[in-house]
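Please fill in the sequence for the structure shown.

STRUCTURE ENCODING:
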């Protein structure tokens, strides 16, 4: 290929990958539904987009290193100390019982259906156990199931990526070892491959521990050091034993996340951007390698395999894993209808296929196209049916707003109680023990854990929040938390204004939209409340009295719209107004709240 061909191919893959994700975001559908057909069509129609021709022998190693970064990032999000509650028993069973059951049942059908050898079938079964948060997360964001289901599926998706990656690598090495001329040679080959990955993970974690204990780099260099370490270790392991780097990458991520003495500064947003870009590039590139000819004798059998996994295997696994729990029938059925396959399945299939074909494993060439068909079928099916199924089973979270109010001052508690009186589900958070006690005495719900830690970790604790309102008396904290939380929740992140002329470590007038108006700053609200003003809810038909200030408008269906410096929502008939009103009027009006 000429230089122009390479430039054209690289540019098109990048444009197709990011463009597909942007289009999926606009359409509010999982990005895989767009990326897979776009990559497949591009590979079939445009020669320059075929990565095997574009990159040659470099394509497979680059895929492996890309998957290593994804698995390392997945491991970083698994703080095992936070894996408590939220139906831990169900999630544990889904991983340790569901994964091997799915692998064995899928392999059992693949043998006759796809005319595969036992070695190729068990490899395909191991590849297809992986779902992953990059697929499940966007689907759950669209469906909005109840919190209980959300937590179970988020944790399953987060855990199954590294567990599935390890299983796939172990099975691959076991199959690869079976090609050895003697049984003892095969066992030694297998043990050497797995041992190399484990040793690499230990060495990588030790290097990062030493680096961050001695050198102590900042966020930028610290993030770059992690990337260099995981890529270097994964590549070194693969040089010694093919694909043992995947095991090393997963173990490095788990170690870094769960060893208390490793305090690693990380630019989480950079990691998220990098992983998102890698996912787009890998999906588009891998899809482009699947030719129409490779699907000729695989398409229909692979669809049959996908149907078997969806209709038989997943419901059976969920029934087994939820037996004896207090989940309702609707909750069990919804979990049984949510197992799309994702990027790790595609990438590991691409990585393992070429190696097994080189080892002359019968049917190995069918692993990648069969995986491609299963991914397309499951993502499309679940993407189109998850929301209707959730409605049918009555497991969708109510559409009403669920705001998180951060702060424990008396006026904040008054606001929380007033919003709750309108029928809204209100969540509170405060850092000081006396403020948390005050919240409990008021009968308001407290968000568990450390708020910023939850937002920058796996994110499971902040799922379901439709907006965060930072109302503490610390202007620096409000400004900093706005920057950290922005993009971490599905709704707006707004903060109360700082006193005029104030300044601090964080510029109180930068970053994030300001609640209420220029005169209703945090200190002003606290002072007026202390002087006797109160927060009330009144019907919109009563209007806003001249001596009261509008804070929020509650629309029908309990949808909350805040007043900000740049936007004041117009009340309509049927709305409820949340006002800061004088004490005497507040006591008279509160009784009229419907």
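FILLED IN BY: designer on duty
SEQUENCE:
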């Amino acid at each position: 290929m000429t230089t122009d061909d390479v430039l054209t191919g690289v540019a098109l893959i990048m444009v197709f990958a990011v463009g597909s994700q942007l289009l999926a975001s606009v359409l509010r559908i999982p990005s895989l539904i767009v990326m897979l057909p776009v990559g497949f069509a591009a590979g079939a129609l445009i020669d320059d987009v075929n990565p095997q021709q574009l990159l040659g022998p470099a394509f497979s190693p680059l895929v492996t290193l890309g998957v290593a970064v994804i698995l390392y990032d997945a491991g970083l999000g698994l703080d095992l100390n936070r894996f408590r509650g939220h139906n831990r028993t169900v999630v544990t069973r889904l991983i340790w019982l569901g994964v091997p059951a799915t692998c064995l049942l899928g392999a059992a059908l693949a043998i006759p259906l796809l005319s595969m050898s036992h070695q190729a079938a068990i490899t395909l079964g191991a590849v297809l156990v992986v779902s992953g948060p990059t697929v499940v997360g966007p689907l759950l964001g669209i469906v909005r199931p109840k919190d209980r289901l959300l937590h179970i599926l988020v944790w399953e998706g987060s855990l199954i990526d590294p567990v599935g990656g390890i299983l796939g690598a172990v099975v691959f090495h076991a199959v690869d070892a079976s090609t050895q001329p003697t049984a003892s040679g095969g066992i030694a080959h297998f043990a050497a491959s797995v041992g190399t990955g484990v040793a690499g993970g230990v060495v990588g974690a030790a290097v990062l521990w030493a680096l961050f204990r001695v050198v102590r780099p900042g966020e930028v260099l610290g993030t770059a050091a992690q990337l260099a370490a995981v890529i270097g270790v994964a590549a070194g392991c693969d040089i010694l034993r093919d694909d043992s780097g995947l095991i090393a990458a997963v173990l490095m991520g788990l170690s870094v996340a769960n060893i208390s003495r490793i305090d690693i500064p990380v630019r989480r947003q950079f990691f998220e951007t990098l992983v998102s870009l890698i996912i787009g590039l890998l999906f588009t590139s891998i899809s482009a390698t699947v030719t129409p000819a490779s699907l000729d004798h695989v398409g229909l059998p692979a669809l049959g395999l996908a149907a078997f996994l969806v209709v038989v295997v997943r419901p059976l696994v969920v029934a087994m894993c939820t037996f004896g729990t207090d989940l309702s029938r609707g909750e069990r059925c919804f979990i049984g209808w949510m197992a799309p396959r994702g990027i790790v399945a595609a990438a590991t299939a691409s990585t393992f296929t070429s190696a097994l074909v080189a080892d002359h494993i019968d049917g190995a060439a069918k692993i990648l196209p069969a995986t491609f068909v299963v991914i397309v079928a499951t993502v499309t099916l679940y993407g189109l049916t998850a929301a209707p199924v959730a409605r049918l089973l009555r497991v969708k979270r109510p559409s009403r707003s669920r705001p998180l109010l951060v702060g424990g001052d008396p006026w904040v508690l008054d606001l929380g109680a007033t919003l709750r009186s309108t029928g809204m589900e209100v969540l509170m958070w405060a850092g000081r023990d006396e403020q948390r006690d005050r919240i409990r005495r008021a009968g308001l719900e407290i968000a568990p854990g450390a708020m910023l830690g939850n937002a920058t970790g796996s994110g499971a604790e902040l799922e379901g929040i439709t907006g965060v309102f930072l109302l503490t008396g610390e202007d620096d904290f409000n400004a900093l938390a706005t920057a950290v939380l922005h993009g971490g929740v599905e709704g707006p992140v707004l903060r109360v204004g700082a006193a005029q002329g104030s300044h601090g470590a964080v510029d109180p007038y930068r970053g994030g939209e300001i609640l209420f108006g220029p005169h209703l700053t945090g200190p002003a609200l606290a002072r007026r409340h202390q002087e006797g003003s109160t927060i009330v809810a009144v019907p919109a038909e009563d209007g806003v009295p001249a001596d009261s200030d509008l804070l929020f408008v509650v629309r029908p269906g309990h949808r909350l719209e805040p007043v900000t410096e740049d936007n004041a929502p117009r009340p309509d008939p049927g709305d409820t107004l949340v006002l800061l009103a004088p004490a005497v009027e507040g006591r008279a009006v509160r009784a009229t709240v419907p």
